[in-house]
Amino acid sequence: MKYLNLKTSKFLFIISFLFSVFSSFAQQTSGKIKGQITTSDGKSASGVTIILKNSKYKTSTNNDGSFKLNKVAENNYTLQASLPGYESIQQEVTVVNNEAADVKLQLKFSGKEEASDNSGDQLDEIIVSASRKVETLSKTPSSVTVINARDIEDLSIVSPNIANIVAYAVPGLGSATNNTGNYGQTLRGRNPLVLIDGIPQSTPLKSAGREMRSIDPSVIERIEVIKGATAIYGNGADGGLINYITKSGKTEKKFAGYSEGGTTGNIKGDSTAGYRFNQQFYGKINKFNYIVGGTYEKTGVFRDGEGEVISPEYGLGETKTYNIFTKAGYNLTDMQRIELMYNYFSSNQDSDFILKNGVYGVSPAIGVLGNRPGVDEGTRYNHNANLQYVNKEIFGNTSLTANLYFQDFLTIFSNSAFFYGSGQSQTASAKKGLRVYLNTPFTVSSNFSGDVTYGFDLLNDKTNQKLVDGRVWVPNINMVNLAPYAQLSTQIFSDFNVKAGLRIENIKINIDDYNTLATGANGAGSIAVKGGDLTYDAFVFNTGLRYSRFKFFNPFVSFSQSFSVFDLGRVLTNAKEDAVSKLQTKPIIVNNYEGGFSSQLGKFNLSASYYFSTSKLGTNLVQVDGYLVAERLPERVWGYEVQADYQIIKQLTVGGNYAYVQGRGDKDSDGHFYGPTDIYLKSNRIPPSKVTGYAKYGDKRLNVELYWMMVGDRDVFQPNAKGAYAIGEGPIHSFNLWNLATAYRVTEQIRVKLGIENLLNTDYYTTTSQFYGTNANYTRGNGSRFNLALGYSF
């Protein structure tokens, strides 16, 4: 608590005042309705729309199928429950003051589930990441993309690489890099914060660029992407956040499971064969439910469209990947639940090839047989554990959620001659955190109701980057962050949804004394740097409005801020001063402005948004003496996104999205971004335009899905006098990719899957390899690859 400042004290006073006001509303005499909705196969039904007909009362079921309506006036009501793909049902309910009516309903399959899975009622999609509470997209005043379980499974048929899955599904996110890292795969031109069940995977104190590919998609239930700067989960979400939400054992059976095995490889070239196995067990025994799973994958050699071995530098070929996952929950009472999650991920490369440089713009860098120096590269381990306690009525109508979590991560990079005597660096990060938040609903009148979510986050993040031989490149950085926050959501006249929130960051960072690594001949160039403490205090704010009366036009406007401690590790490695206190360590605050809408017209869905974000101190990277150094200057990033889909017939849906991003830096800090000295932000930050499209056909047995992606041009920089480009400034030339996913259900239990990546065997270079502008990084993307698997459910 010693890190709390005066702002924090004022904040806590405001929270106490708001809480007392909302508690007084909660004490008004009234009744409530609570219930549980299941489907005909015994599974919990999440996202069911619950309304009391001819009244203002409406809600949706949580992930466990439960729902609650508070402050319901005494009366007789007709409760209606509806979910796409199931028959709507109604039940008469009587509400008596100071009593709770209990409702249990079971939805029956209507025979239209396949069509609903494709088109769906998108505005009623349930999300939790935007406010850390259950809400629907139609009530959220921000841009959100949800990749549900079915889409994850379908895209995984093409490639189980999670970075590919999100690249195809999320407008505004850069295309995948085709290697272990996600450097350059930004969200709306800025780095996103990646989470697993709310546990940070990013390493903002010293970016490792490994957060995107940190878990196997087989254990992910859905992916929620909040686009635009946000502070809801803390440090590092300049471009938004990507939250991988893991599976739960949703079944009424005591024991059930799924087994899958398959083979992968390139269609052209030898030594490319690999294999993949996945096993999951899950069940429910009285108040206890569980899921346990494991995945093992070994890939062969990766080849490009010409059959050449793709460069092994940070490659995905010849890797062994392990993922172990378990989640167990126990309902202590009807109102209390405790749940434990653990996930282990590891992916390491053991290649028989070494790099042969290409010629930038002419011929690719490839792999040739040879002995790779050093140890195997890749993520040695990524441990994540989360203990969650939920009490739906800790007092009055207030609910409590508490999460105790940790992450332990280590990744090793390839050998580099940049260091004196060469060497391999490794980034290690250990996080421990506690999140406590409460939610109190309130009703002022029939036309004004809402809820307030409030609490605090406590995070300890310890990060360093050393060489495998023990030399220190980035010293131990120890951060403690205590951040109280509050988020108010209100419904005015049932249709205006207003949200406002604030968060106070109180951060203290301790940095060890260290010596910078020698890079010159005979070990010259090392500087002794005295460590010390850095302190950051920041107040960040968000607000938004969405009008949700009409599904054919559901508009919103929003403003949000994020706070990031700039990549300190990059500053420390390039220190030219003898003390941390003399270095440029100012943080980044991003302001994000956005407006957009969602629309449903029968079987046609459309959404669009325009945004721009500003920051007084940006992170445009320039190369100085071999180092990538941050150029701290004012920045502006802007763009727009459009997404649409249409259900042509019951079995066939088509759709796609388009995203444009651009960014400029104010070099002379005059408040303008198009002066003679002002610059474009580099392509390691700003991706080229991206278009995706799909056609999905599905019935009870056969599914066929065709995906298309076009990455556009970005050529806004000039080469130097020798014709070479600086890192991040190489011209990007457009390319088109087609993927195919098919699945056939042989029986109710057996399903055969076949996916083809790069169906037309297109010869192309990834955006990363193009913008780097170097001979070593000029690598092609994958040629045609197949993924054949057989799955069995029991």
Helix percent band: under 10%
Helix segment tally: 6
Q: What is the residue-mean pLDDT, rounded to a whole number?
A: 90
| Rg from Cα | 26 Å
Based on secondary structure, the structural category is mainly beta
Overall shape: globular
Contiguous low-pLDDT stretches (5 residues minimum) are: 17-28, 111-120
Counting DSSP E segments of at least 2 residues, the number of strands comes to 43
The major β-sheet equals: 22 strands, antiparallel, barrel
Q: What is the CA–CA distance across the termini?
A: 51 Å
Work out the strand percent: over 45%
Plain-language structure description:
Helix content is 7%, strand content 51%. The chain is mainly beta. The protein is globular, with a radius of gyration of 26 Å.
Question: Layout of helices and strands, plus pairs?
Answer:
Layout: H1 6-26, E1 31-39, E2 49-52, E3 58-60, E4 66-72, E5 75-82, E6 89-95, E7 100-107, H2 113-118, E8 126-127, E9 135-136, E10 143-147, H3 149-158, H4 162-169, E11 193-196, E12 199-200, E13 220-227, E14 240-246, E15 256-266, E16 274-285, E17 288-298, E18 319-331, E19 336-349, E20 353-356, E21 366-369, E22 377-395, E23 398-412, E24 425-445, E25 448-467, E26 472-492, E27 496-511, E28 514-515, E29 528-529, E30 532-547, E31 554-564, H5 568-573, E32 588-601, E33 604-615, E34 620-624, E35 627-631, E36 635-649, E37 652-665, E38 679-680, E39 690-698, E40 702-711, E41 735-745, E42 750-757, H6 767-772, E43 785-793
Parallel strand pairs: 1-7, 11-14
Antiparallel strand pairs: 1-4, 2-3, 2-5, 5-6, 8-9, 10-13, 11-12, 13-14, 15-16, 15-43, 16-17, 17-18, 18-19, 19-22, 20-21, 22-23, 23-24, 24-25, 25-26, 26-27, 27-30, 28-29, 30-31, 31-32, 32-33, 33-36, 34-35, 36-37, 37-38, 37-39, 39-40, 40-41, 41-42, 42-43
